[in-house]
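Researcher: Quick one. two chains, 463 residues in total.
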Amino acid sequence: MHFDVRILVNGSWRTASVEPQVTLLDLLRDEWHLTGAKRGCDEGDCGACTVLLDGKPVNSCLVLAVRANGRSVSTVEGLGDEDHLHPLQQAFIEHGALQCGYCGGGMLMSAKALLDANPSPTEAEIRQALAGNLCRCTGHVKIVEAVQSVSRAGGGAEREQAKTEGER
Amino acid sequence: MKSFSYAAPTSVEEAVALLADAMPHAKPLGGGTDLLVRMKRNLLAPKLLVDLAAIPELTGIEQIEQGLRIGSMVTHAEIAASRLVHEQAPAVAAASAAVGSVQTRNLGTIGGNLVSCVPSIDGGPALLALDAMVTVAAPDRRWQMPLEELLFQPHCSALTPDEVLVDIVIPSQSLGKASAFEKYRRRKGLSLAVVNAAAVVELDPSGERIGRAAIGLGAVAPTTIRARRAEEFLAGQPASVEILAEAAQIAVQETAPIDDFRASAEYRRHLVAVLTRRALEGALARARSGSGSGR
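Model:
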């Protein structure tokens, strides 16, 4: 049993013929070679596969590809490229928010969704928004700082306070 | 996952007919955050998934004559963001906001949460404390039952394989009451409750005494439970910190927690006392800051 799906991926329509058990993650990676979303736990527990489905962060490993038919999907590939980095990508580089990079794609998409909905999040709101994205390398600090640096007014002030407290 | 057949009906009638036809080899698909995980682990392998996502009747949060209706396919994210739910049943909004992560809240549904009958479901305590009713559809009929009846056994709801949960209704008399939800977990996100609790508090007309209280507790019994002896104790008592603490201790007696990898039974009993007290205090504070009478 195959289903034809038509999905708006990073602004362009793509089609595929999939079996029901194929997840959106499988489709993105294995068929379309959009490998920015990673297969971490494959169970919705790590967030490495996070993409935006109709603008909302979801674990693509838990979305059947057939269910994404007719809908819009945003992946990290659509965020920016080497010549035109998204501010979040630029900030991740500048702040050292990536080590192995495996969580990065998911982190960026969750962060993007946060800033789209809430352009000036507090540190607590940033941490809550990223709570579904696990990072084994960085301890999350640089990731939070990177997101803060991109968010408007307020992010800078909290960073200053954190730095002062760290110096004591 | 093993391969399976897939259908995406657009009506409840179509869905239950498909489930009945393929019984017992078909499963309804809600958000997928529970079912697909179990299928990936090969704990079950249904031959047919009946996707409920395309059924309009299962969506929506709205005020109806009976009370506040929440479609079974409404996601936790939608409930957490709903102004109606925040106003009419704050503990329900708080509970949905506490589930999993942003990502799983955007997929996971309240119906799937309840039907999973996991003892620690966050959707349990508040809805149970608010006397929620659930609507069930079978191939030949529909009916309502109290949520308490749906939560039959751990990991086994009262639904038969050809039945679908249509919606949850919080009755009118439970709306606009002061309520609060507490969840203790090992991490701040992506964690099941070690213990969760919800409380509803109504003050009597004087505003000095508790008119009525309701307490729901999860992860401390085979299914979510009401702490009815604690509730009976509270009725008519002065609304003081000491009384709430005493009620919380009574609630502990009504639970039967187990030792597991998340916590010992002893620690869970301790948490019941703490979380019940906090939920009662939170609800009481809301009741006081409202009109003072808890409406």
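Chain A has a mean pLDDT of 92.
Researcher: Thanks, that's what I needed.
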